[in-house]
Amino acid sequence: MIILKDVRKQLGNKEVLNSISFHINPGESVGIIGLNGAGKTTLLNIISGILRPDRGFIRVNGTENILSEYKMLRNVAYVSGTKSQLWRDLTIKASLENCVQMYHVDKEKAEKRLEALNEVFSIQNLLLSKPENLSLGERIRCELVYALLAETQILMLDEAMIGLDVSIKHKIMEYFEAYKQEKKATIIFTSHNLLEMEKLCDRVILLHKGTIIFDGTIERLMNEFAPPYEMRVKIEGNLPDFEDLPLEKFSIKKDTLHIVFYRQKIETTYILKHILKKCRIKDVKLTEPDLEGTIRKIYKREG
Amino acid sequence: MRTYIEFALKKFQNKMAYRLEFFMGIVNTVITIVVYLCIYKALYGGATEIDGITFQMVATNFVISLGLSDAFKYNEMFLQDKIHDGTITNEFLKPVNFVFRMLSENIGEGLFKIIFNFIPALLFTLLYASLCPPKSILNLFIMLVSMMLGYLILWLISFIVQTWSFWLFSVWGIITIKNVFVNILSGSLLPMWFMPATLRKIISFTPFESIYFTPVRIYLGELCGADILSGMAVQLIWICILALVAGAFWKNGVKKLVVQGG
To answer: Do A94 and B95 touch (CB under 8 A)?
Structure first.
């Protein structure tokens, strides 16, 4: 269990985190969303112990400062897209061997895990290279294997998918989903890619200027903050009367109706049935609000 | 402990991959030793001894101290680089002691250089000059222990200077000055025997004499019985003092990093 209560952090003159409180249950996967400079990395650094809060209470599995307990550290893996964990002057293979030693992983188990990880991350041909000779995507794949080899209970991923191509990203996301289910691991994830968030996270925390502006499931976020649905209906016949319906907006251009509505107020089928009473429908195009649009709306509101 | 031995072995194996560096290391050590021997051969001007110090003793001092100082060289900008690129914080998340990890990796590198640079260079030097044999096998064995203590003193001095990277943008200049002090005051450039008595007295209150000169004196049999014990006790005392100073700098540096964020 990860608990934060009234955590505050100022770096220089900037208040990076202001009164942050939440808890993460074991096995939960939480996404931290925020614009650049919102305090996502600072928050992860504080949870991991590499940054101390100015005020507030923090406990990771009952430990205040995990850096002081190696047993605790063996349960935590942190992957950062910008800061490498690998040995700069050693080959990837040697770095992975060091990882096995440090995390006290049984050698046979480690070999099996590496074999399984290699199927997803395809790093077999990178094992004898040094990090400086790898592309960003290749290095990130190796960083992820390094972090997953120890099968830790807490996994912190800070922009850990940068530089990965679409095909491998998909495989990796599936691997993380399975990892979460099988190992009951706690995953804390920061990314600007909301599709990844949606796929991996049970819950999201929205940070804005160092404060939490939302903490809950993606479903709740969509219900509460999603922008309206938009529907374009090509009709033939008389124009129906929409005055009695709880729509946000409607207009007609030539033979196409443009309707804006919230699904919490009115169902799509109800609107279509209403149109069909007066005319014939030739074509329908429905645009659903996505997570990105929802978050954009929230940040626009927050200024 | 096994983890740290693995770190040292990895570094040792890694060094083996660089064949050119390996050969250049031997050449570098041989050239350094031979140049100094030539200078001192000229200074001796055919005399067998000066103030009771034979040329053979001087040559032995140079081979041991210059050879070891070459072997004990490593990347002293390591900590500064880690602080500058921010990866130092990631190191704290590894479930090992970062300082011991640094030490074991440096030991691994030093061992490689002793076996593959120092020993071949020593053999090449023997073709050029004759050296004093060890006083006895026991002296040779004790000298090896004293050499390890000397390495720890040198490493701790270097580590203390490296920790200043937490407060300074660059420690390159300070490291350079430190190396000049170490080279002169440890007797690897100018043997301690030829230093003025006052300077030698001052140096005896510093850790520098314990780095190379104590092992050299044990090897040559200049220190016997109780003197060996007191020489090594001084080495141990310096290790304790320097470890305390290094610990204080390290602790405060890390505190600065986790409180102020670098």
So the answer is: no
8 Å CB contact of B89 and A45: yes
Alpha-carbon distance B50 to nearest alpha carbon in chain A (angstroms) = 47
The partner residue sitting opposite A50, judged by closest CB among B7, B13, B89, is: B89
What's the average model confidence in pLDDT over A242-246? Answer: 88
Which of A255-259, A296-300, B119-123, B142-146 comes out lowest in average pLDDT? Answer: A296-300
Of B7, B90, B258, the CB nearest to A78: B90
Under an 8 A CB cutoff, do B7 and A45 touch?
A: no
B95 and A70 within 8 Å at the Cβ level: the answer is yes
Using the Cβ of B258 and the Cβ atoms of chain A, whether some distance falls under 8 Å is answered with: yes
pLDDT (tens digit per residue) in B212-247? 999 999 999 998 889 999 999 999 999 999 999 999
Residue B209: give the domain boundaries: 2-260
Write down the pLDDT at residue B46. Answer: 80
Number of domains in chain B: 1
Query: Which of B30, B29, B42, B44 is CA-nearest to residue B194?
Result: B44
Q: What is the predicted pLDDT for the residue at B262?
A: 58
Instruction: Please report which confidence band the pLDDT of residue B25 belongs to, taking 50, 70 and 90 as the band edges.
Output: confident
Contact criterion met (CB below 8 Å) for B8 and A90: no
ipTM: 0.81
Q: Which of A39-53, A161-175, B45-59 has the highest mean pLDDT?
A: A39-53
Question: What integer is the mean pLDDT of A167-171?
Answer: 87
- All domains in chain A, ordered by first residue: 2-216 (3.40.50.300), 224-302 (3.30.70)
Q: Is A82's CB within 8 Å of B96's CB?
A: no
Confidence of residue A209 (pLDDT cuts 50, 70, 90): confident
Distance from the Cα of B117 to chain A's closest Cα (Å) equals: 20
Nearest CB to A83: which of B14, B87, B96? Answer: B87
